[in-house]
Each structure stands twice: as structure tokens, then as C-alpha cells.
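user: Here is a favour to ask of a fellow structure person. I have my own habits and do not want them to colour yours. Could you put it straight underneath, so I can go through it closely?

assistant:
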Amino acid sequence: MEIVFLYIFCFISVLSALGVLLLKNLLHAVLCFSITLISVAVLFLYGQAEFLAVSQLMIYAGGILILIVFGLMLTSKIGSKQSNTNNSNLWSTVLLGLVLFGFFSNKILKLDISIVPQHQVASIPKIGYLLLTEHLFTFEMITILLVISLIGAAIISKGLKDDSHAD
């Protein structure tokens, strides 16, 4: 029964990723992107990688996706029916994707799975402790960088008024 859910979420993630590539409406593409990120988090849970699943949800589905939606709201593209995306390289991209899929599939099938380490439950609290003690400065710098980029995006989208001619 678990394998059925694995295949369902694999299908959902591939289908929504294709929706991101092929949809012309930016808002619909962002919604498909959110479905892709959430289904990948479920696949991480299936692979017993809880920390990666939580990181996927918090960083990508929570943070990056909100920035993308905020950027869409700041621009005038959200009301338009189509974006200005150009799919002129569609077939070369599909060919490159299939070549990369074959290459990585070949490498994965040649892996020796018998040497995979056992799942360690105590690693998640240790990672959390290290992130909030030794690497706290890094988190603060990333937070400041994201706030600055958000303010910069708002300023760029709104446009700066030239006050030099106000004399």
C-alpha cells in the first residue's frame, strides 16, 4: 500500500513540475510549483529523511514561494492572461532533460545500496542545536539579506522618483 502512495506522489510531482514549465499564466505556474515542492517533501518523508522534508517545507515552500508570490503581486503580470515566456527551445530542453535523466538513472542503478547508513533519530536534535548555537550568525545574515532583497524588489517594482529636479 505504501508503494502506491509513493507512485502517486511521484506522479503528482512530475505532473506539477511539467505544469510549471508549460503553463503560460504565472500564477498557475506558481501554484504548480507549490504542489511540486510539497510533493517532494512527502517523497523525502517516504525516504525517512525527516529533516530534509521539514527543510523543504520551511525554506522552499514557506520562504521562497512566498517571495515569488510577493514578487508577482508587486508586478502587473498577475492580472494578465499570459506571460512573456518564450518556449522556442522546448524540444532541445526536452532532449537535454531526457539525456540527463538517462545519465542519472544509470548512475543511481549502479549504486551499492547495501552500504546505506542506518537512520539516526538523534541527528535532528543535534542539527537543530548546531544551527541555533554555532551557526546562528549565518541565519541572521541570511535573514537580513532576504529582507534587503524584498525591500529592493518593492522599490524596483514601484520605481524611484527622481528628486534631483525638485530644486
Summary: Helices lie at 2-22, 26-46, 50-74, 90-109, 123-133, 136-158.
